[in-house]
């Protein structure tokens, strides 16, 4: 067998493994706990990490699918690089908008490494912010110019107020489109 034939066989084998891997379905209930958070199963449902007490009364974690559907990211498991760049933790049970109150988190989320490269995490927090009446792109712009003022405006906003232009707090016009 000549070297070109060997190379063809190796290439065929490698491609077949790649295709098999890409066709595998992502199912939340089958994901290990350390990959659950920031994953979206193939049906488009977000995965959530839940805790429970096992038979020995030790705390354990399991991955479940939620009712939140994100079709454009179906089958996506966020990379460790994105988890790190965005300042999030896969071990958190439940995700809260309280994270926006820390300038460090908002700075990580709004950083180019996160905001431009990690659509799943950005989409999740975009929706979370919108639920609080905050338009994430405006918060990120405000954070770039004056992080402490952005946090003060965010904390002082009540109900539907959102961080808007550089010097004002404005009402959010309703659910904003996702940046992705």
From TrEMBL:
Signal peptide positions on this chain: 1-24
Coiled-coil blocks: none
Protein name stated in the entry: PAR1 protein
Transmembrane feature ranges: none
Pfam families in UniProt: PAR1
Organism the protein comes from: Penstemon smallii
Key words of the record: Signal
């Amino acid at each position: 067998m000549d070297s070109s034939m060997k190379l063809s066989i190796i290439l065929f084998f490698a491609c077949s493994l790649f295709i098999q891997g890409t066709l595998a379905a992502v199912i939340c209930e089958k994901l290990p706990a350390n990959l659950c958070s920031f994953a979206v199963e193939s049906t488009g449902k977000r995965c959530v990490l839940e805790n429970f007490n096992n038979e020995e009364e030790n705390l354990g974690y399991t991955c479940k699918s939620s009712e939140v559907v994100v079709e454009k990211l179906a089958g996506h498991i966020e990379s460790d690089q994105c988890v790190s760049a965005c300042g999030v933790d896969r071990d958190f049970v439940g995700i809260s908008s309280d994270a926006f109150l820390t300038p460090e988190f908002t700075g990580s989320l709004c950083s180019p490494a996160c905001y431009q490269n990690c659509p799943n995490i950005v989409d999740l927090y975009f929706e979370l912010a919108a639920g609080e009446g905050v338009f994430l792109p405006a918060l990120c712009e405000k954070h770039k110019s004056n992080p402490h003022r952005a946090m003060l405006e965010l904390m002082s906003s009540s109900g539907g107020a959102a961080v808007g232009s550089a010097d004002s707090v404005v009402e959010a016009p309703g659910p904003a489109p996702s940046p992705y």
